[in-house]
Amino acid sequence: MPTLPTLCDIASSARAKRERRKDARPGELLAAALELFVEKGFAATRAEEVAKLAGVSKGTLFLYFSSKEELFKAVVRENISGRFSEWSAELETFEGNSADLLRYCMTAWWERVGSTKASGISKLMMSEAGNFPELAAFYQEEVVKPGNDLIRRVLQRGVDSGEFRQLNVEYGVYLLLAPMMFLALWRHSLGPCVAGNGELDPIAYLNTHIDNLLLGLTVRTPAAPNAS
Amino acid sequence: MPTLPTLCDIASSARAKRERRKDARPGELLAAALELFVEKGFAATRAEEVAKLAGVSKGTLFLYFSSKEELFKAVVRENISGRFSEWSAELETFEGNSADLLRYCMTAWWERVGSTKASGISKLMMSEAGNFPELAAFYQEEVVKPGNDLIRRVLQRGVDSGEFRQLNVEYGVYLLLAPMMFLALWRHSLGPCVAGNGELDPIAYLNTHIDNLLLGLTVRTPAAPNAS
Amino acid sequence: MPTLPTLCDIASSARAKRERRKDARPGELLAAALELFVEKGFAATRAEEVAKLAGVSKGTLFLYFSSKEELFKAVVRENISGRFSEWSAELETFEGNSADLLRYCMTAWWERVGSTKASGISKLMMSEAGNFPELAAFYQEEVVKPGNDLIRRVLQRGVDSGEFRQLNVEYGVYLLLAPMMFLALWRHSLGPCVAGNGELDPIAYLNTHIDNLLLGLTVRTPAAPNAS
Amino acid sequence: MPTLPTLCDIASSARAKRERRKDARPGELLAAALELFVEKGFAATRAEEVAKLAGVSKGTLFLYFSSKEELFKAVVRENISGRFSEWSAELETFEGNSADLLRYCMTAWWERVGSTKASGISKLMMSEAGNFPELAAFYQEEVVKPGNDLIRRVLQRGVDSGEFRQLNVEYGVYLLLAPMMFLALWRHSLGPCVAGNGELDPIAYLNTHIDNLLLGLTVRTPAAPNAS
DNA sequence: CATGAATGAGCTTTCATTCAT
DNA sequence: GATGAATGAAAGCTCATTCAT
């Protein structure tokens, strides 16, 4: 015998739907916040905008995050998922010479990070590190160190195989890192200001760096005078 | 024989002391502004703080700089763009090969800008460019363009003289710029978070970059295979 | 039989009360603003005072009016320009001779504007026009022009029907306007200083003007020499 | 025997010159203040501007007038010199009919007051009466009353001679006053905002008023049906 | 006396945060 | 839980007024 839903049924179904939405809320808010923080910076992003983009009211945001600062921390933490293990595996299984590996690494970084919203996180950290020291330490530990390790292993691979000259890999890391970071930051700060004329083509920029990097790193055999 | 100061002396000394203070004010304000802008960012620095640090009242600041933005521009001019002509002259009169010039440039940058508070300005612009388009445009015009020009001339000198290989100097500029900018940004953002352990030695960092840069740029004569 | 309010009733009543306050706010703020603008002038009235008089906080004012100038414009619309269409309709449907219409217009102006706080707005604009060109332009467009048009139509009606003599209505407008404006200005400036002795009776003042105005305007038939 | 001027001589001569200038100072400041107050209003006129226009420093202004308000009072008092006795005499000796006298009065007012800076004083008083009640009372006594008396006598002259119809001269005064005051105020407030199109020609404006005024006032003999 | 550098109260506007509904 | 009206602490800038010189 079919029964009409009771008030209680309706309430519980509404509650169920609401709880389902409730679970999704933080994620929607974090996504909205990431979008806006990256686009406009922390200070210039208004809490209300984040709420609106997430489709909730201003008050709701503060239900889930006790302050704008806490929201920021959550955004950064959320988006620093370690894709490092995956990359580490790729590095391990890469077949080919180290020059190609290095080139592959920087190109892959551009495709997967540099050109995406993820690079905005780097910019955010650079900008706000001073205001969020704990967060900076966290980022340092979770991103900078593993990232540097990865790069270091690429260099060490080349040195060990005799493809690259001897060098202090601790500092050599920055030969790769600096160009990538500069590009990421540039694209999220002054870059957009020169849109139109004199704009930077990321691919050409990276290739210029990679080419010169390898010219400097690669050991050239005396027998074959620089044919490059 | 000691003489008593004349009436005229007294008057002029009085005026002199007053004028000395007046003349000193802008410099004191600029120093205070640089300090705070670099430490806290442009938006987060309150005009009153700058005034207080310079030992004057809020109103006095606006006696010398018509707005906070003008104050910022003055800071930039004082610390960076005002010095390009001097650097340009140095470049013009440099005697020696282009590799040495390049090395000299990057070292000099470190000593005069990178290691000083002035390097914070670069970080500042990266952080705030999006929110202050007018400042970004100003910086672009007064710092980025002339700075790039300077670097381009160094590269072109080497290419023209046959010391450096042929390369697109437009992008080659970033071979020098990226390492310097990354260092400046790092030292004013995440750098301070790792103070003590694993800290970056700027000199070693720069030398690593310079060495590899020159290895990549320099044309090696086939007759004397990589003598480096 | 009385019924308990349902859940829905309670909810809607709660919302209703909130919304009623929200709906009432603009009106309360406009009333407060009119009061203070008229009493102290536009520039000398602080936004916070308006808010306080309306029983809300400073911030709330800007929730409803995006700036002090917009608040002023809203006050003008509410009290003057928003009522022109009604007046225009009255003019259109008035039955009676043009002398009576003219008399009716000036009397109605006194009752609806001149004797109310709204007349302070005219004084306000006269005082502040020079310092707030945008407001002056707004007032010109929203009040002066439509107001003059209205008066012009009254005159034209009389001329067209042969009741009034031929005259340049463009300037004739001021035959009505000047007396009304002078009264408004007087009552909000020097008038209050002579309160008690020698004070101006507005009705007598206006009637004196109207009577003489009509004596001057009305065409007297030669057959019945001044029957007035 | 000629003597070199002693220090004391020099000082006293300097003192003499300075005292001469000192005597002139208040007048120069008052003139400058009148100019600016009339042009921009009381609040919008900065003390420093007044000082500069008078050719002295900001501090000096406050040496002669203890505050901006005192300066304003002095300006108004200074510029309300009674030219009334002169006008009264003119009125007394005027030969011609009263219509011509009335016409002459209003025209003369325009030439001597309305079109000159002096009319700015009226506008100032209207604008600032609320903020300077004592001043308003003073103005009332020194300007408004004598002025009204003068006008009243013109009307009374016409009524006594039978040229003008019977009317309550107490209120009749405003038949002349309102048009003149409106013109003065208009020209110093909203008038300048419509410069170019629809601007008011003062002469045409006044003539329109005078013509209608006289048509209304003048007794027309039944024998000569309105030939006007 | 005269100066003008210095002051700081005061103004409009913004926005993170709260809380009655 | 969710809402959004309300709050009030800031912040940049102005300018009458003071006072050391």
TrEMBL record, chains A, B, C, D:
<keyword id="KW-0804">Transcription</keyword>
<dbReference type="InterPro" id="IPR036271">
    <property type="entry name" value="Tet_transcr_reg_TetR-rel_C_sf"/>
</dbReference>
<dbReference type="Pfam" id="PF00440">
    <property type="entry name" value="TetR_N"/>
</dbReference>
<feature type="DNA-binding region" description="H-T-H motif">
    <location>
        <begin position="46"/>
        <end position="65"/>
    </location>
</feature>
<dbReference type="InterPro" id="IPR050109">
    <property type="entry name" value="HTH-type_TetR-like_transc_reg"/>
</dbReference>
<keyword id="KW-0238">DNA-binding</keyword>
<dbReference type="InterPro" id="IPR001647">
    <property type="entry name" value="HTH_TetR"/>
</dbReference>
<dbReference type="InterPro" id="IPR011075">
    <property type="entry name" value="TetR_C"/>
</dbReference>
<protein>
    <submittedName>
        <fullName>TetR/AcrR family transcriptional regulator</fullName>
    </submittedName>
</protein>
<dbReference type="InterPro" id="IPR009057">
    <property type="entry name" value="Homeodomain-like_sf"/>
</dbReference>
<dbReference type="Pfam" id="PF16859">
    <property type="entry name" value="TetR_C_11"/>
</dbReference>
<feature type="domain" description="HTH tetR-type">
    <location>
        <begin position="23"/>
        <end position="83"/>
    </location>
</feature>
<keyword id="KW-0805">Transcription regulation</keyword>
